[in-house]
Predict the structure.
Amino acid sequence: MHFRTRGEKIFNVFNYIFMVLVCLTCALPIIHILAVSFSSPAYIAGARVTFWPMGFTLEPYLFAFRGGRFMTAFWVSVERVFWGVGINMFLMVTVAYPLAKSTQEFSARNYYMAFFAITMIFGGGLIPFFILISDIGWLDTIWSLVVPGGLPVFSMVILMNFIRALPKELEEAAMLDGAGHFRCLALVLLPVLKPALATVALFAFLHHWNEWLLGMIFMNNPANFPLQTYLQTLLTNFGALMRQGGPELQQIIARLNERAGRSAQLFLGMVPILLVYPFLQKYFTKGLVIGSVKG
Amino acid sequence: MKKLLALVLVLAMAFALLAACADPDTPDEPPATDDPPAVVDDDPPATTNEDDTPPVATGATSEFVQPPANWDEPFDQTVLIRAAAPHGVNWFFEDGDDIGNSPWTRLWYDELNVQVEWEFTPVTDEYVTRLQLSIAAGDLPDVFHIPVEDPFMFRNLVSHDMLLDLMPAYQNYASQRIRDFELTDPDTIQNFIVDGQLFALPRYYYGQIDQPWHMWVRKDWFEAEGSPEIRTVDDLEDLMHAFIDNHGAAYGIHVDSDLRWLLRTAPMWGAYIGELADNGYFWRPDETGRLRPGITFPEFEVALENWARWFDEGLINPDFMTIDQWGDNGVSEVVNARVGIMCWWQWWGWWGGNNVVVMQDNYNAYFVPFNLPTVGGTQPARGQVFWANNGTIAASADFQNPAALMKVLSMNDHMVFSPDANLTPDQLEYFMGNGREHGMSPAFQMIDPQADLLQFQHVLHAMETGDTSELFTTGMQFKHRDSLHIQEALAAGQIPEDINAFGAYLQMGFDGSAYARSQHLFDTGRIVQTALWGEIPEEFLEVGATADMLMEAIMLIIIGARPVSDWPDIIEEWYAQGGQVKEDAVNRHFG
Amino acid sequence: MGSATTNLPQVQPPGNKVKKERYFGSPIRIIKRLRREWPLHLLMVPAFIVTLIFSYGPMYGLIMAFQDFNPAASFANSPWVGLENFRWLFSQPAFIRTIPNTLFISISKIVLMTLASIIFSLMLNEVRVSFCKRFFQTIVYIPHFISWVILAGVMQTLLASDGVVNQFIISLGGDRVAFLTDPSIFPWTMIWSDVWKGFGFGTVVYLATITSIDPEIYESAVIDGASKFRQIWSITLPLMGPIIVLMATLAMGNVLNAGFDQIYNLYSPVVYSTGDIIDTYLFRIGLEGGRFAVGMAVGLMRSVVSMILMSLSLFFAYRVANYRLF
């Protein structure tokens, strides 16, 4: 494993240099954004801020935190992620496992697959969706945000393909030991599927953390806004404001520089993502030794 | 261990799902909200001296309640209004308040026995969508705001009998003050009366004095050039060149990707086009009396020629099409001293005019407004005036208590605009300080169409005489305070502490301010009104976007990629693509 | 055990097709099958119900594409107009040109993004120091989360005619490049900046795939004396094949979606001829109203195109490479 040819050594040096350069281009914008979020409006308006805050201020952050609404919204988001990711993972696993079977093992598989795949492509739009949620009485409840998208078909298909790529022997051995489908899924497959589960969990987490439009539409009471929806209410959309015009506009503009606000919002929204990511990341960067599971 | 963990995880998820799907009719209680509203703070400066009992939703009724005669008398029984309005961005409330429980909702409850419950209040951009969803679901709130963004929604709702006739309530229960708005602005309310029935109340607008644009010129450079007269277009161009040659400006005049700043200079050549929006244009009669948009008049070609020449001479930034006026680089050109002249609204002092001073570290680097010059120079260019109405307030056809709406509207107008309110400074701060006036929301506030004119007159009077006794509204007091702040700083040769105060000062705080310049235009009759004086005709809906192709063509002409001589062809294409329909409609409705 | 073939997806050898069983066979066979397969059906139940209610329930909204939809009249009373919404859309010359623009930009993005993500994950996989590997991956994954509104501002500054990038080009003796205002260059600016923004996130799935490969396979290859490049070419890439094809196929669902946020924040009328896409066009005409029905007409069109493209790629993946993706 550790024989290294000359070519490989050269490649390695090149590889590291390349990585560092790529990372630099990716990191500089976020550093810039962070610097902007801590800078005074005048410097931002003058495009003077590069990679270090100018006229240091916490105002955009204080603005987001003011009035205690931030924490309320944060907990709504946590609640949403808890239920949302939980439901997503449960449904994805329960669907991906049977669908990974061949038609010999599960004769209705193709019908189910078509049933789910169609929802990936066709949708009825916002209006009937809203009417449905409203009729069920789920407006203003967390369920309107986590149940309807309960099965992310895209991620489920990825997961299903991971299951199909597993050695057949794994399952067969368990079946021979007398395990049924449920035991086999829970005790044999889930542990070896960690990289794939981490991947789809990440997608589910990101979706529920970042989505804000449905939060705005289905949550009538601002106290029920998830974090990203709440942060959206702090952003100035000058296009919309301009159509209204008038003195209100002036005060809003004077209060907060949009760019600093957006930057702060972006960063606040990203912190949990950056915290969760390394935790999941270890599952898909560290090699998984299937051999040891197979015994 | 790991296997056990996996099993527990699966079980937890299964439980989660069951809990979620179990019983949709009784969803978990939403997290505790601010409902019931907290008692008014320990030291309530509110006008009320009644007891501090918080409004209780259960006691309120949406059944019909006989209203008392006068607008300021409370109902016998608490009246409930389920309302909807856009939640402005950047509005915030303090001390656990929110839009559902603010000084204003408490005021309505305490003074009028009207309780407002917000059905939904998404931010501005999503509001129209959300309202349309409610309309489609057949579940309109009692009272709601129809924003200007959707000019067709009103007629739509009327034609489907979804709105309540507000006329009886308006005539019987609205205060004299808000009914008098009709006298100042008689045309506006007519747009919402169908067969004698008033299906929505206009919110009106702050007044025409807001509308003319000005040429903003950087003051320190201007003075260094000897404060020359800016009467002719040549004067202006000389100044642009002087700023480039002597002060390091990169360009002569600031232009953005919407071309808004450039198109607004068209009156200098006698062309009136307003903005190139699909629901706008500037309509006026040609020599035959037919109403036509400004882009079809020969003067517009002259303007185009001159803009193309400006671009060619380097007076316009070659990257102007990437300058997003509301984005990052919108004001940076100005703030970074790359340009010293721009055409803009009267409120430049709040947007970029203030930041220049800080960035240039020079108290005198602010911008001052001038009337637009003309080719001949004997008179300033005319100010363009549009029909303006800040959306409407409507009620659902099955709303029982329109009188309550009238009372709330009257109360709010009284508090904000009336000379008789006599609020103490504490009360002013409590209701309107720090942006708290937003608590009224667009669903419950009409705007005095004389507001800005009166404000300007009273503030300027106070600035010139030092007599502050006539500053009877909060707006007047705040703007006077700001203007004074700037005046003192400038006199002392210092950069003012609160640079946002430049906004009020440059708008109305001295004789050469924007409103003073506008007033001059109105006084001398140098005003031109669009003929499209009312809501956009319905026919506009039938044709597609027509401003798009114009915008593309104008930009290509300015950068020299197309000759100006193409313009008649472009106009012909515009007529073919729907311009004809629009023109016919405008002539039918306003000709 | 541990041979390369066991890791490949379960594929039926083409020549040896099992005779297809008819699902609705005799009652006895159905009962027999149910007895054997009931746990699998049971697992399907929750997702089936959720999907039926929340995905199929609102699908009647598709009829809006054939209506002159009016929210006040809702679905029941809005007049039927047949194909009028489509006819109107295709009578707009400004709309017609958005189709090739959209296809060019989105397909280029899909292809280049896939390539960039694969190459980067392979290179990242060669970084042996665990800390570095994680660090690099975290960094490149960040731009995915920065909204285009913010990035657009940064890009406009960098790519201006006197911006840093052009200064650099000129110092190398090149000519000024109008990245954002030259119609022939604008689409490429969009494509490459989007690849830059998204490739790091794209590596997540590929890296998980590489990680799932049984290390024993490499070990036996090393014993056979295979070089690193040889291992990548003969082991890693073939084993990634199905997932690559899968990701590309899923991306087909977005082929008429060339990135509204990005282009809306960076384009201008001077580049409409090559840079205006379906979504930006719809957004601009949206202010004129009627957006629901026309929007739905476009949505339906998009769905049909996606379905055709996805079906084609599924078909070819199966026929040519023997990958069964769905």
